[in-house]
Amino acid sequence: MLPLTSNRVSTPRPTKEWSLFYVLNGDNDLREAATLDLLELDRAGAPEDTHVVAQLYRGELEWNLRNSATKLKSLFQREAKPVVQPDWRGMKVFEVRQENDAAASREVALPDTFASSAPSSPESLKNFLSWGVRHYPAKNYAVVLSGHGNSEGLLSDSKGRVMSYENVANTIRSVENETGEDIDVLLLDACSTANPNSERQLANSVDYAVGSSTPTPGGGWSEEVTLNFLRENPDAIPSEFAESFLSDQHHRIEEPVIYHFAS
Amino acid sequence: MNIQRTAFAPSNSVQYKGNLQPANQETVEQSADQVDLQSRYLGDSIGKALGGLFGAGVGAAGGAVVGGVSAAALGASGWGTAGAVVGTLVLGGAIGAYVGANG
Any idea what DSSP says for residue A91? Predict the structure, then answer.
């Protein structure tokens, strides 16, 4: 059974044109950067015909051999102040407020299967996406994986573990098989995610994947620009939405790359 | 292809626990400035080199201990110093190489 809360909402979510699922990985030194991404989503608001759901991890790097280089580097950076009050560590999922809703985005009560979630875990990603597709039905689906990345993978966590591109692809295929829905667009919002390895591994998992061939700053792709595109183009087809990430309005991204895998 | 649709118990419902509560605007802006200085780069060769350096340091310390024990065991035979040096180099190098490859 799902845990009961005082303000339970039992209305099934309506089918919309798009559902966007964000994994904002701040289980490392990007904790506040990931949280700022959520605040940017909240500030922009979900377009009327779009569901926007964000899974936010807030943690901090641990000392271990696998993590040593990143941890050492973080010692020389001034730590950003917590941008949410009260400050917390762990994982929460938020349904981003609709643009015409005056209230802030709301945290969603989750099934027990989410209890041991870790950003680098394929099982955790599968849990989130399968749950999301069932609760937020849409004609088109997009997934944004946000955090640290390199040519081998992304979503590195506090222990220095990384999700390989192979695991990303297998997880998405598994979600598609389980739910019967296609994930149309995958945005890899991390550094250096457009590379021969990611291209090879992600083929046959999504129709379109977008990444960057160069390092990107902590803010990554602009959530506001992304949501504004769907606000102005509610009927956008997957190719149009994927190509919108190449816009120079996403000014932090120097060399975006789009892969078209659809047959 | 036969695609199985698994039911999600108990219903297609969403429950809310509370609101997102941003800190004050000044804190948000200061943090945004700081985040602009960060990168989403996980690190490849540089990270591995740093990891290797860190591992070599740990390895050297471990090797010194092994070498020191060897020196004590070999006493004044003249081989103790050589044992310490070899122990340091071999163990330090092995751990450094391992961490460098996996860092």
Answer: E
Contact A60, A10 (CB under 8 A): no
How many Å lie between the alpha carbon of B51 and the closest alpha carbon of chain A?
Answer: 5
Contact (CB<8Å) A65/B42: no
CA-closest candidate to residue A156, choices A116, A126, A119, A195: A119
Whether A69 sits inside 8 A of B46 (CB atoms) is: yes
Give the residue from chain A lying closest to B26, CA to CA. Answer: A83
Smallest CA-to-CA distance from A29 within A55, A61, A57, A56 is with A61
Could B16 and A5 be called an inter-chain contact, meaning their C-beta atoms sit closer than 8 Å?
yes
Q: What is chain A's pLDDT, residue by residue, as a tens digit (263 residues)?
A: 333 343 444 457 899 999 999 999 999 999 999 999 999 999 999 999 999 999 999 999 999 888 887 788 788 888 899 999 999 999 999 999 999 998 889 999 999 999 999 999 999 999 999 999 999 999 999 999 999 999 999 999 999 999 999 999 999 999 999 999 999 999 999 999 999 999 999 998 999 999 999 999 989 999 999 999 999 999 999 999 999 999 999 999 999 999 999 75
Write out chain A residues lying below 8 Å of B12, CB-based: 12-13, 134-135
Inter-chain CB proximity A219 and B35 less than 8 Å: yes
Residue with tokens 């003249």: B78
pTM confidence score:
0.82
Domains of chain A as residue ranges with CATH: 20-260 (3.40.50)
Q: How far apart are CA A255 and CA A240, in angstroms?
A: 18
ipTM, interface predicted TM-score of the complex: 0.83
Give bridge partners of residue B10 from the DSSP assignment.
none
Which residues of A fall within a CB distance of 8 Å from B27?
A: 81-83
- How far is C-alpha A191 from the geometric centre of its chain's CA atoms? 14
